[in-house]
Structure formats: structure tokens, C-alpha cells
Batch of 2 targets.
Target 1
Amino acid sequence: MDRSQQPENTLETVPDPLPAHSTATVNEAHRTHAGADADTSRAAVRLRDVHYRVDGRPVLRGLDIDIGAGAITAIMGPSGTGKTTVLRLITGQIFADSGVVEVEGRDVAQLDRDALYAMRRRMGMLFQNGALLTDLNVFENVAFPLREHTRLPDRLIRTIVLTKLHAVGLRGAVDLLPQQLSGGMARRVALARAIVMDPQILIYDEPFAGLDPISMGVVMRLIRSLNDALGVTSIVVTHDVQEVSQIADACYILSEGRVAAFGSPVELAAHPSPMVHQFVAGLADGPVPFHYPATDYRADLLGLTTPA
Amino acid sequence: MSGLGGELLASLRAALERLGAMARFSGRLLMLTPSGFLRFRLVVEQIYNAGALSLVIIMTCGLFVGMVLGLQGFDLLQRFGSEDSLGTAAALSLLKELGPVVTALLFAGRAGTALASEIGLMRATDQLSALEIMAVDPMQRIVLPRFLGGLLSMPLLTAIFIAIGLFGVQLVGVQFLGVDQGQFWSQMRGAVELGDVREGLVKGLVFGAACSLIAVHEGYNAAPTAEGVGLATTRTVVISAVTTLVLDYILTALML
């Protein structure tokens, strides 16, 4: 009963170890912090001339990306530009047709199964829909990686899980099942699960998609504060330009399988390329056309074209 | 004509590819099997899901199959004046054919579809990918316990089906139609051998392996969409039913 009285979505619930900022001050907070922690000169993840095809159709065509250790790097771009493919390459779910994908200095494609799993244990990933295991409650979902990979006693597991849930503001929800959670809550539980093994690299796949403004603000602030408090490298794949601009240290904009632009959010806002301008400003028409390729409109309406 | 031939060839190739994929999947599962027993708690959970939750349907159907067998058997045997053999006839047909086959068909419909749709939905909602990223092998953590749970449940369900079926035969034959109770049981005891019981249980085990394997394979390889999960469920029932009947012929021929 008393759970319902806790203001779960408000900023006050967020936890002592990760001090609450309003989103407007997040950037200032991190700039001072990032100076101390982030070593952006050392790349945690490096993609070099990566090509990838699906059914003969090129998705990535010579992609070069460096993701600085300890920083938040956003990978943005219109739908279908291969953003999720990049994530799957980094996590070793798929392998590049040519080019090199290095994580912490090791070529992902050269790792055997054990080494790949060892690498993944140092990664945490937040899936778009949370991907919580539906037959386990919130507590067991967060405890899952610990139970699978460690032989810690139950008491310690409990302490770790509650700490992580507290960090995302959902310690009160331990007994709920995934289907009882709202979209934003599910994503925060998934975030707690992603950080439970204290990963070096945190990957977010569309973390803001489909969230209400409050949940979006909460998730946004969590990404920033977790990055700074845990000293991890964060990779955020998204097309929510405004949101990610407030927290990212560096942004890549992909287009047609290549890097169209790279820079800080401020630099990108003033980028000369019309495509980047269209994307950042969210214009309907421009180099990325509004219309799917079609025959002449007038001829089509007058019935002068033959249907395909 | 060449178009038809080409299509036939293509569909034959597709079928062979599926069979090959299934063989590789089974091989992988077989290699993992010993590790499945190390975490037996997960298997026990699945024995509950596939076995205990199927009990009601298995018992209800067993009872009615037995009762129908009682009626038909009585009618048939009466024509030869040997209705006292009802117990033997019913026990042999239940043990050797009806028990394992009907249980397998029900199992495919009740537990197989549940397995396929559960794993398929886990695929569609990225849960399997999430396990991969958490460095947990979904084959070992999700597929293997479900396969073993189904495999171990089937012989037990078969035995229960046969027992309840015999009760149904006895209910109709002895209680309603007036077959002599002593004759009913003593003839059955005299004619049924341990080999007949073993045949039923071996069939149950083999059908259980086949149906569980088909269910987890279809679920694991389902297309990650609502349609894909639906298709996987349908395929599970259809392929399981056909496989069960084909295997039944082969096993019967081998064991007779």
C-alpha cells in the first residue's frame, strides 16, 4: 500500500549516492566531473573502416568511430542508418564483413566464445523495451547476472541489488513483476540490471523512445549520473537529438552507413552540412527527402502513369 | 514443367536445410545436456510447467479414451463371445499405442505450444538477446531446462494416462456393462508382459524427446514478430503430430 504513496517518478526519490540535478544543470555538473574522470583520448571502443551487409544490401560502408573512455558518446542518425547494427557489432552479436571492431583494445571478431562472454560481462546494455525476463520479479531480474556469474551469498546479492535499485529510484518495486511496471519503470529496472555487474561500458539502445517527459528526464539524468559516478564509458544510440544533446560529450551522426558528422552537441548545432542541419533541427524536408521516391505527382493524379 | 520441377527442387532443398538446422540444434542441445543436470532446479521448474500443468487435460482425456475403449471393446468382443478378455485387449492397446500416442498429441497441444510461444516471445521481446549480452547462453539457461523438463515429463504423463485409461475401461466394462471383475483383472495380468509396459514407456520417452525438441526448436528460431510466434506455435503442433505418428510406426515395427 505504502508503495503507491512513494513519489517514484519525482526527483526526490533518487538516491544519495547519485545526487539529483535538474536536467538543466546536468551538463554543467558533468563538465567539471568529466574533466577529472573522462579520458577521452583513450578509446574504449574503436571501429575502423567497418563494412556490413544484410542480404547483399550495404548497411555500413566504411564506418570509423572512436568512443572515448569515460565519456558519453551519442550515435545518432535517421532511422535505418545502421545505428543498432553498430551496437550489435560492438557486443559481438554480429561480425563485420570487413574492417575492425575493437573493444578495450581487442578485436571482437578474433575472440573465441569464452573471451567474448568475458568481454560481455564487462558490458551492460539497456534494451529499447527493457527486455526484462517476464517470469522473474524485479528483484530476481536485477539479481540475475549475479546469480549466473558469481557465487555470492544471498545476503550480499540482496545488498547489491537493493543498492542498484535504489540508484534508479525503484527499491520500493522489488516484488513487482515486469508486466506490472510502466515503460519508464521497466527501463529503469533494466538499467539497474545493466549496472549490477559494475560494467566498464554501458550501452543504451534508444533509451528515450516512447517515454513520457518525466520518465525521459529521469532516464536522461540517470545516464549522466551513472556515467560520472561509476566512471563507465557510455554509448547512447538514439534519434532524440534534443535530449541526448543535454548529456552527451560527443556525438556521431550517421547517414547511409557512414559518419556524416562528429563533434560536441554545440558544434553539431552549428554544423555547415545541410543534412546535419536538417537532422539536428528536425526539418521534414531537406537532403533526407520527405517523400519516398515516386513518379511525377501530377501525372500520377491524372492517371497518366501505369501502376507498377 | 521445368517451373514445377524447379519449385519441387527448391522446396526439397528448403526441407533439407531445415532438417540440417534441426540436427545442428539437437547436437548442440545434446552436448549441453550433462550441464543441465547440474542445475536441476531449473529442470524441476519445467517439469512442473510441462508435466504438472498438463495433468488435468491428460487425466480427463485418459478417462474418456478409456471409457470409449470400454464401450467399443465390449461391443467388439461380445460378437466373438469373449467379453471377458476386455481387460487384456484394453490394457494392450492402451499400453502399446493409445497411451503414448494420444499423450504425445495432447502434450504437443498443451505443453509444446506453451514452450514454443514462450521461447518465441522471449526472442521477439529481446529477452534472448539480453541474455546473450549478459554473457548467459540462452540455449543453456532457457532452452535446455525446457527440453529436459518436457523429455522427463512425457513418460510420466504416459503412465498416468494409461492408468486412468484402464480405470475408465474398468468403469464402463465392469461397472456398467457387467464384465466379470475377476476375469477382467486376472486375464489382464496373465496376458500383459513387462515388455508391453516397457514398449509404452519407451515410446513415451521417444515421443517426449521429439515433441520437446520440436517445440523448443520452433520457438527458438521463430521470427521475432507476433506472426512469427503464431507460426511457430502452429508448426509445433503440426510437426509434432506428424513426427509422433511416423515415429510410432517405426518404433512399433522395431519392437514387435
Target 2
Amino acid sequence: MTELTTRLRAVFVEALALDRSVDVEHLVFRDVASWDSVGHMTLVAAIEDEFDVQLDTDQVIDLSSFAVAAHMLTGLLAGVTVGD
Amino acid sequence: MPALDGRVAVVTGGTRGIGLATCRVLADAGATVVLTGRDAKVATSCAKELAAEFGGRVAGRVLDVTDPDAVGRVIRGVARDHGRLDIAVANAGVLGDALLGMITDDLVTRMLSTNVAGTIHTVQAAARAMMRRGGSIIVLASVVGERGSAGQTAYAASKAAVANVARSAAKELGRYGIRVNAVAPGVIETDMTAHLPADVLARRVADTPLGRLGTPVDVARVIRFLADDDAGFVTGQVVGVDGGLVL
């Protein structure tokens, strides 16, 4: 696990109040009750805070899994926009 | 201790009129204020003047609220630099008058892109910055958004939309402890009303039960109340500051 995915995992756990049984790295939108549309905005705000990045509206909509979030962040932190 | 001591506020369109008065009133109540304006020189000079008055607790940023990425960058930057954002005043707006047959597409676009889209961008960005600890967002509607006004169809439509931005966002953001309210000024003495002919202004005063034009400070004081914890159970409201004009 990279440093980015470790930090991202911690953000997911805290923002979505995930318990230990959740397979965070394979989590997909609506897999757990707390990742609904309301939890999604909390998660986005937490990711932006933790990584000091700004997600645009398309990215907010596209952020549909832990894997997508990690991929998106890799691009954002490298200074490039990452699509699907 | 002043009511807003330690709070951080951003005020869009904070370089003149109601926006500038709001910056002054919020800073006077103890808040750290970041004002924004489209003109970098004006924003810098307003901020410098207010910073001198309030011990450096005012800063300026250049911002065009029609650019959603820029709004996000500026508001996020304020929250990052100060470690929090408690108050956002979506004040930036434009006024455009035209009788129905003279309304151009350009006028409609300007009203909607600044007054409506600009307000939505600001609410969106502020909400994200406030999501973890709550906050208060105040948007600027208008009495004409409630009552309509001959010669101001596009402007009135845009301000009616702003009132509903407040109501809808309040419903959506309440669960995060974020309150969203609108103020609806009546006829206020600002640069935006200075162009009105004297007879029109006189008629407006005659229609106002309190018998005078409003001042930017009249509006700013209501904004300060809505920003404060004293209004902690107030959300989704459109508060008239119009001397009774709406009655």
C-alpha cells in the first residue's frame, strides 16, 4: 500500500465512519449505508482537506469508488487532470 | 468579547456598497474578513484600508464569481490559510434595467451568470469548506425578487432565483450544521441605485413606510445577525431589509 492509499484509506474510514469489517480498498459508492449522496459530499470535503486539492464538479460525480479516488488523486497531485 | 471574535468570513463583491459595509460590520464584530472583487487594484486598496482600521484582520482577493474554478480556489484558499471558514456572504451581483421589449440576451446572460450562477458557485464552495464544522452562508436577494419591478424583469428574475438558492441550500445543508439565509434589500443608497432619476427615487421613498432609502449599513447589520450564533436556529429565510416596502 502506498502512502497515498494509506492516507486515503484513513480519510474514507473517518468520513464514512467505516467499521473494521469493510474492505475499504474495494469500496464502491453505495456499498455501505454511510456512502450515500450525503456522505459523498462529506467524503469529498475530507479528501480535499487531507490532500489540499480541489475536485471539480465532474470529478465529484465521477468519484465512485476508492480505486477511482486513488487514481484521481494520483493525477491531481502530479498536476494533471485524470479522466475515467 | 465581540460576537464574531475568531470567526473567518469571506464576502464576495466586498469592495463597495453593501459588500463593503458588510466587511466593515463583520470586522467590527471581531471577524477576520477576506473580501473579493473583480478588480485587483480596488480589492487590494479596500482591504488595505480596512486592515488599517481593524488591526490587519481584513485581506483582499481578486475574484470573478462567474468562474466556478476561481471561486473554489479562493474560498478553499481562505479556509486553508485561516484553518476554518465560518461565514460566507455571496454578495457579488450586477444590476441591469431594461423594459421588457428591450431586454437583450446579453443582459439576461449577465444577470443569470453573476447573480444566480455566481451565487450558486459561492454557496457550493463555502458549503464544502464548512462541511466539517458548520457555518453560516448569506446570499443577497432583493425586494424586487419578491415583488417584481417594471423595467427590471431580468434582474428581478435573477433575485427571485437567489432567494430559492437560499431555501434549497438550507434544506440540503442543515444536516451539516450549515445555515443558509438571504437578505432582501429594498432601495438602498449605493452606486447601483445612484443612476436612478430623482423622481423615481422619490416615488420609492414615498412607497416605503419608514420614509427613507436604506443604507448599506442597514443591510450589513442584518447580515451580521444572520452570521452570528444569535441566529443559530434561523435557516432558509429571506429577510427583508426594506423599510416596509414589501408590505
